[in-house]
Design a protein that fits this description.
mainly alpha
């Protein structure tokens, strides 16, 4: 335990490390694209958001099979915690290719 300045410095250092990790991931995602993202659904996102965000969206697309349009069953957790489209949002959007505007600005360049 320490004073508020020590705690503030510790939290600040942790946030800087997380930010650097996200930036490095984003830079890598601009250069390396997995084969699973080479489909029309992710065409507007690849190269514009991080691979971590793409992986979260892939998981939500898999959840779409059993969640569908049901907001209660979906829970919209990904939207509220990460600023990414949740399964029910992806189902109701009807987009053939997921638009970049659905992503929170923190995931984009």
């Amino acid at each position: 335990m320490g004073d508020i300045c020590f705690c503030w410095d510790s939290v600040n250092k942790m946030i800087i490390l997380q930010h650097n990790t996200i930036k490095a991931s984003f830079e890598k995602s601009l250069n390396v694209v997995s084969h699973s993202f080479n489909v029309t659904t992710y065409k507007k996102l690849v190269g514009f958001i991080s691979k971590y965000a793409l992986q979260y969206i892939v998981e939500e697309m898999n959840r779409l099979k059993w969640v569908g349009f049901d907001k209660e069953q979906c829970g919209c957790t990904l939207r509220s915690t990460h600023g990414l489209p949740c399964a029910c949002e992806l189902a109701s959007s009807g987009f053939r290719s997921i638009p970049l505007q659905l992503m929170h600005i923190s995931w984009t360049d």
